[in-house]
Design goal:
Strand order of the largest sheet: 1-2-3-4-5-7-8-10
Helix content: 10-25%
Strand content: over 45%
CATH topology: Porin
Structural class: mainly beta
CATH class: Mainly Beta
Order of helices and strands: HHEEEEEEEEEHE
Distance between the termini: 35 Å
Number of domains: 1
Radius of gyration: 19 Å
CATH architecture: Beta Barrel
């Protein structure tokens, strides 16, 4: 999963390089945009309202259907686990472009409400749950691309979710501690999002 996120990030930087070099001097300003996104927390659809070339407000709905993947040995206490994970969320975000000559660069902040549920199954069949249910959660990040021009838009965002941490339950206290120590189930969750959309 980490390899996939890294690959998506690298591809996004390569593809949006022309957008970084061109601030769209001849394009028209868009009042609104609709964006489709993809991240480790699932797909999303967002509606953006551009208040000015510097500031946009985004309202998003997202989530991921249940999927199963396996953790490598040693990732959780030296043992292998299958993880079933799904999420659903809504969020409101502010995109601010502080550099007038580089509209492609954004600072992003926002709040999200939703949940992330993880079912963790050990090789012996025992089941643990690590669920994020505390709301709201904060988001901070930076973005590249997706300016306020009319027409086709796309970009990439890098940031993190600040949470209260998951509620972890299961039959073995030692395994619960191992899960708490794993980066995937911490209070801070890294995020990479690739977005595609249209300004009008």
């Amino acid at each position: 999963m980490r390899s996939l996120v890294l690959l998506l990030t690298l591809l996004s930087f390569l593809v949006i390089q022309p957008a970084m070099a061109d601030d769209h001097p001849e394009s028209h300003h868009a009042d609104y945009a609709v964006l489709l996104g993809g991240s480790p927390f699932g797909g999303s659809i967002s509606f953006a309202s551009h208040q000015s070339k510097k500031t946009s407000f985004l309202f998003s709905l997202g989530g991921a259907p249940e999927g199963i993947f396996s953790m490598d040995d040693s990732d959780i206490g030296g043992n292998k686990y299958d993880i079933e994970s799904h999420s659903s969320w809504v969020g409101a975000f502010v995109n601010h472009r502080p550099i007038e000559s580089a509209e492609w660069f954004r600072l992003v902040a926002g709040l999200g409400i939703g949940n992330i549920e993880n079912k963790i199954t050990a090789e012996d069949g025992s089941v643990y749950h690590a669920n994020y249910t505390e709301n709201p959660v904060g988001y901070l990040g930076i973005g590249f691309g997706v300016d306020t021009s009319a027409g086709f838009q796309w970009g990439v965002d890098l940031g993190w979710l600040q949470t209260a941490g998951p509620q972890i339950t299961g039959p073995n206290a030692e395994v619960i501690e191992d899960i708490k120590d794993n980066w995937m189930f911490g209070k801070v969750l890294p995020n990479v999002q690739v977005s595609l959309g249209y300004g009008f």
